[in-house]
Specification:
By secondary structure, the protein is α/β, with parallel strands linked by helices. The chain has twelve helices and 16 strands. The strands form five sheets. The protein has a seven-stranded mixed β-sheet, with helices on both faces. α3 packs across α4, α3 packs across α6 and α8 runs parallel beside α12. The structure holds pyridoxal-5'-phosphate. The site of pyridoxal-5'-phosphate (PLP) has 14 residues, from α3 and α4.
Length: 373
């Protein structure tokens, strides 16, 4: 089975982890510090904090932005559920904004969703392709909202000539095993704002600051959301290879764009992406005539050895969210869910395996007739 995405662990990664394992500190040591410094340098940001997951980094960002139970936060329904779940954990109400054809939040719909209790906008760079960050930033500045970017898919991507990580007030990355680079589990929060950095750092580690000798002070409550030194060492090693990984992913994506050009079954998102993406996902978007056969197509793709997946079921369709928000439907998010399948695209593939996947995919689709609508 060739997965839609996977990690790439090489000899130097293994050596890095073994070195950390034999170092004096297994947590809160020099590797964590170095990984954060390198993230700052790579991304061009002032502050970076690494976490044990992107989920805990999101939670800490929301806490740093002081998101509370009296607040609404506008976000995308086309995301992994953690983006919204962490809002619920802060007691806040997620307000879902519909998406565009590329799966990203529709910035033109944001203004009409803003109310006096709106506190923040949380966008998601779907598949690694940046949202229209300048427009969202403008809206946030105008309405005094915090702009938080869940860029879990998007480390190393650009918005025009600017790195993702430098665009929002706070940006979150994931280092989960199958994200562009990995620390097995892990995440990061980056920001240029000292206050957000200080608050998120407190949330990460018990709200505690060290003082003299044995003395310490606790000014707010917090968690243990820290990354281990083993993971940070792996992160340092992986970050060195990120650009190379992204280059391979881009070659595969461009090959697919060509190979699937003009086919009658689906179009591909990548060929129309305006920004330099990470290709964390390579989504194909079925023509409406094939939506009725999506389950059968999906099964046939799995049977032919392709580890396909669907990203994502709109978050408001989960029963938890239906209970909270009632039966809401957003037309484009619903259609996106009906149409999308993520096919294999990752740094362990080469053009030969991409060619093989292409042939298998087209062969599967040939067996399906368009449904009468
Ligand atoms: C993977 C992912 C997360 C959660 O990341 P973890 O590191 O697994 O906690 C959050 N948001 C999005 C969009 C993701 O893809």
């Amino acid at each position: 089975m060739i997965p839609y995405s996977t990690q790439c662990i090489q000899e130097d990664d293994i050596k890095a982890v073994l070195d950390a394992l034999q170092s004096p500190n297994l947590t809160q040591g020099k590797y964590t510090q170095e990984f954060e410094d390198r993230l700052c340098a790579y991304l061009g940001v002032k502050y970076a904090l690494v976490f044990n997951s992107a989920t805990s980094a999101l939670y800490s960002a929301y806490q740093a932005a002081n998101i509370q139970s009296t607040h609404q936060v506008i976000t995308s329904p086309i995301s992994f559920v953690a983006t919204s779940n962490m809002l619920l954990e802060c007691g806040a109400l997620p307000v879902f904004c519909d998406v565009k054809r590329d799966g990203n939040i529709n910035e033109r719909l944001l203004s009409e969703l803003i109310t006096p209790t709106t506190k923040a906008i949380v966008s998601v760079d779907y598949a690694g392709n940046s949202v229209e960050a300048d427009k969202i930033r403008e809206i946030c500045a105008d309405k005094h909202l915090t702009f938080i970017s869940d860029s879990s898919h998007a480390i190393g991507a650009y918005y025009h000539n600017r790195r993702i990580g430098t665009l929002a007030d706070m940006t979150i990355f994931s280092f989960h095993a199958i994200k562009p680079i990995t620390t097995a589990e892990g995440g990061a929060l980056v920001t240029d704002c000292a206050e957000f950095y200080e608050q998120a750092k407190l949330v990460r580690s018990h709200g505690m600051v060290k003082k003299d000798l044995w003395n310490s002070e606790v000014t707010r409550s917090g968690f243990n959301f820290r990354m281990t030194e083993l993971q940070a060492a792996l992160g340092i090693s992986q970050l060195k290879k990120l650009d190379q990984f992204l280059q391979i992913r881009e070659e595969i994506a461009q090959f697919y764009d060509q190979a699937f050009q003009g086919n009658p079954y689906f179009f591909t998102l990548h060929q129309n992406m305006p920004h330099t993406t990470t290709n964390h996902l390579y989504p194909i978007i079925l023509a409406p005539e094939f939506w009725c056969a999506k389950e059968e197509i999906f099964k046939a793709l799995l049977q032919s050895g392709l580890g396909v997946q669907v990203h994502y079921k709109p978050i408001y369709q989960f029963s938890l969210y239906q209970k909270l928000l009632g039966d809401m439907q957003l037309a484009n998010a619903n259609d996106f869910y009906r149409a999308e399948i993520s096919i294999p695209c990752h740094q362990k593939m080469d053009l030969r395996s991409a060619k093989d996947c292409t042939a298998k995919i087209l062969k599967v689709f040939e067996k399906f007739k368009a449904c009468v609508r």
